[in-house]
């Protein structure tokens, strides 16, 4: 107990030994890290907006499904699958925004105590800028995979070479996911 009080007094004494202008400048410099909130708050708002947009897309598919219950044509399947894949893509981008917001906050402003004690959500436990970049890269990779499949659904495969190229693209994605997972361990 005595050691803690002594350390605090020593720190206060060290601060008093420096010129006022230097102490004031360093306090202002340290407080400038709060500028990160300019990015954190809008990023969370963007995430919220994207979740609403994605949910709206799925809700529209659901409503159209109920309106035409059991009376679907080939165009309906393309419509439904396209919109659902787009919604998943939007959800993943919203997730990127959440990870970005929470990561910036934890790195520059303060640790999130609920994240520290939570056993459920370890992806949001960010310790360094490299850790934040790695987590964002994984989600961005998933966005790219979903986007690839969204566009691959629209392509007409007319020759064996088309199917071979498509298979090669899927193999490349599978290898990327495999090596990304292996790198994380």
TrEMBL record:
Where do transmembrane segments lie in this chain?
34-59, 79-105, 164-181
UniProt-listed InterPro entries: UPF0114 (IPR005134)
Designated name of the protein: Uncharacterized membrane protein YqhA
Record keywords, A-Z: Membrane, Transmembrane, Transmembrane helix
Q: Does the keyword Transmembrane apply?
A: yes
Q: Which domain of life is it from?
A: Bacteria
